[in-house]
Structure formats: C-alpha cells, structure tokens
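Tokens in:
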C-alpha cells in the first residue's frame, strides 16, 4: 500500500483561468509539468475533494490538493546487460544507448530495456519518481535512435534535471542522415507538433492541439542523394527531429514511420544519433557536456553513398 503526502495550494486572483497542470507546475517547483500531468491522470489532484482533468481552469479561491505518492517497490526485473557508460557518479549516470534498445518497459517490451540494465548496474540506487516502470528515467530517445541518455540515481537529482528539461536549458545535439541534398548551410524549423489525427501513434506538424517546436539543422556534408546534418533541439517534442525532417521534405534515412518505407531496406532503424548532452550537474551546479561519436552503422552507410 502506498503512503501519500499531500501538498495544498490556495489559488489567488492572478491564477484564475490557468489550466490546473500549468498552475501546479508553476507553484510546485519541485515537480515538473510532466510529473503533474501524470499525477492528474492518476487521480492524485483534488479540488474540494474531487479529482479534476488537466483541462480544468483554476478559479480564485480554489483549494488544490496534490497527493504525492511514494514510489512503488520496483518490480521490473534487473538484467545483466552490458552498458556503454559515458559518465557516472553518485547522482547521475549517462549511457550511450545502442540503436534497437527500448528505454523502459512497456507493452510488448518488458525485458532487455535500458531500465532493466540500469536496475542491475545501479543496484537499487535509481530515483523512484518514474515509478516501477521508469525508475531513474527523466527523458527518452526512440528505440531506433542511438545516443546519450541521462538517468538519475536519486529524487533530488531527478527533480533538478526534470526542471532543466522543462525550461529547455539542456543542450542536445543529434547527427542525422537525411534524404535529399539540402542547399542551405542552416535551416531553422519552427513548426508546432501534435498528434496526427489520422494515426494517434504518430506526430505531425499541426496547429491543432499542438506545442511549439524548434529545430536548427546545420549541414555537415552533402552526398549525391543524402545530407549529413547536425540537429540542435530548442524544444523537446516527441519525435521532433523526425517530424521536422519530414516537414521540410528531407526525412531521416531508415525512418519507416516518417520517411520512405521502401527505401534503404538494409537499415533496421532511422540514422539518428543523440551525440551531445549538456546540463548543469544537479549537485555541483557546474555545467557538464558529453559527446559520443556516430555508431558504426552511420559510417557503413556513408561509405556506400560517397
């Protein structure tokens, strides 16, 4: 049985009209908006004793209760899976995730995920905010995207880093091979991203129920039919680079969801690599930045398109 702690907020006149998730994220610096949304979905936010939806608009005088659930005892199995550790200390661990590895357990993938490997390696020293399925996990990269991902070993580090992701102060850089030749040296893409109304599993550029998204594309090398680029994220939306690449008609090579399904049959996933991650260390307050080289599959592909 979980033990819950309650935090109570009293809405003021200046708060009237704000969505409840926005209001709580502003008032509770310790918890990210993602955490707040999950709490609302889990029916852990109350006004006058009744649960509310994320779309609820706050009224002046509302007494808002946020029930903080203690983490479940972790049930996800620890597995001895080799990890490419980029950096590790008592608060954080950075992993160079291989293409093909799922970050955390979900339907159809309950084993051989990054979380399974972290549970074995870290031996219980992972933050519990993500619950039984996502201990230590602050952000994700797609299964078929390789590269750096950071995990937290305690709740203080988790909350600190989640806040950095929330305000987009994290520095993130990706390498990608895109279809077609991009003539410009740089392409700044500002296009909102939301769920695709025709396929809820996909994202798309849309003005409906979307969030602002910004990606800077910088050309590194041009090939006959492809372009090697660096993509810098200014925001962090689901599938952002893949969706924005599709939007400018230069989809990521190997991307069967947002690109060409019948091209590059030899590729098992998109050629997208999260090579850089920069952040303020949650304990020392010092800026740290780590990079990793592109994986061998990039080099093999590029050697065949010269």
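Residues out:
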């Amino acid at each position: 049985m979980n033990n819950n702690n309650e935090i109570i907020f009293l809405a003021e006149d200046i708060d009237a009209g704000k969505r409840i998730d926005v209001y709580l994220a502003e008032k509770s610096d310790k918890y990210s908006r993602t955490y707040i949304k999950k709490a609302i979905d889990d029916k852990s936010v109350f006004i006058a004793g009744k649960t509310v939806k994320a779309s609820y608009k706050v009224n002046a005088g509302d007494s808002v209760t946020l029930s903080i659930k203690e983490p479940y005892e972790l049930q996800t199995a620890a597995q001895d899976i080799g990890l490419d550790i980029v950096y590790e200390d008592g608060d954080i661990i950075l992993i160079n995730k291989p293409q093909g590895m799922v970050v955390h357990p979900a339907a159809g993938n309950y084993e051989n995920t990054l979380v399974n490997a972290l549970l074995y390696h870290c031996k219980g020293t992972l933050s519990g905010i993500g619950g039984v399925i996502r201990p230590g996990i602050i952000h994700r990269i797609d299964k078929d995207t390789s590269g750096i991902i950071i995990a937290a070993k305690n709740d203080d580090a988790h909350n600190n880093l989640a806040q950095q992701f929330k305000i987009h102060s994290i520095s993130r850089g990706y390498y990608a091979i895109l279809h077609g030749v991009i003539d410009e040296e740089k392409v700044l893409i500002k296009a909102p991203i939301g769920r695709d109304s025709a396929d809820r599993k996909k994202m798309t550029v849309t003005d409906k129920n979307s969030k602002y998204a910004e990606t800077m594309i910088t050309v590194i090398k041009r090939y006959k039919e492809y372009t090697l680029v660096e993509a810098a994220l200014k925001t962090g939306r689901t599938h952002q680079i893949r969706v924005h690449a599709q939007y400018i008609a230069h989809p990521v090579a190997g991307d069967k969801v947002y690109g060409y399904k019948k091209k590059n049959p030899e590729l098992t996933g998109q050629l997208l690599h999260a090579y850089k991650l920069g952040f303020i260390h949650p304990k020392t307050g010092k800026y740290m930045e780590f990079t990793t080289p592109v994986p061998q599959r990039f080099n093999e592909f590029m050697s065949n398109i010269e």
